[in-house]
Amino acid sequence: MKHIIAFAGSNSKISINKQLVTYTVNLIEDTKAEILDLNDFDVPMFGVDLEKSMDGQPENAHKLLNKLKKADGVVISLAEHNGAYTAVFKNLFDWMSRIEGKTFYGKPMLLMATSPGARGGQSVLTIAQDRFPRHDAHVVAVFSLPKFGDNFSEGKIINKELNNQLLAEVDKFQNAL
Predict the structure, then answer these.
(1) Helices in 26-159 by DSSP H: which ranges?
(2) Domain NADPH-dependent FMN reductase-like, which positions (predicted)?
């Protein structure tokens, strides 16, 4: 059985991206999904001076990187703040990339985003689709869920067309595992 790591790029306790990633991993067959919470990987704000004074990187950055290394695939739903990654995700990503530049180890990735607005996190997805492959991500599927409040209810996507789009992306991801 394949093991996948899934998380939202958010530290919100009520993250809509965590709701989307949780729904999504339950659609992936014949896998064991480990849904992570970035709050469990707290690290100080990255800075080269701090890194030197610490004589390395924080243990939590190593822990998340090791989980990625051991996984067969990765599902990430990125929250978007001002058109980019959230500070918590970017900070953790910065620390991890100091340990291992090829942060994603060539693992198949389903990359997603959602937002309350009509663009569904398109700006952060564009950034990630450009940046992540440079860190050895193998992005095999991408999904954006616009207008979260209108299209997601009771733990699932309620818009049939959007749900079918997600199922097609899940299928691409599953075939790449």
Answers:
(1) 48-54, 59-70, 87-99, 122-131, 148-151
(2) 4-141
Instruction: Let me know: does 2 contact 73? Beta carbons within 8 Å.
Output: yes
Measured distance between the N- and C-terminal CA atoms of the chain, rounded to whole angstroms: 10
Task: State both tokens at 147.
Answer: 């207008």
SS3 state of residue 141: strand
The answer to whether the CB of 27 falls within 8 A of the CB of 103 is no
What is the residue-level pLDDT of the chain in tens, covering all 177 positions?
A: 999 999 999 999 999 999 999 999 999 999 999 999 999 999 999 999 999 999 889 999 999 999 999 999 999 999 999 999 999 999 999 999 999 999 999 999 999 999 999 999 999 999 999 999 999 999 999 999 999 999 999 999 999 999 999 999 999 999 999
pTM for the complete prediction?
Answer: 0.97
Helix (H) or strand (E) holding 157: strand 156-157
For 72, list phi and psi in degrees, rounded to 5: -90, -20
Domains assigned to the chain: 2-176 (3.40.50.360)
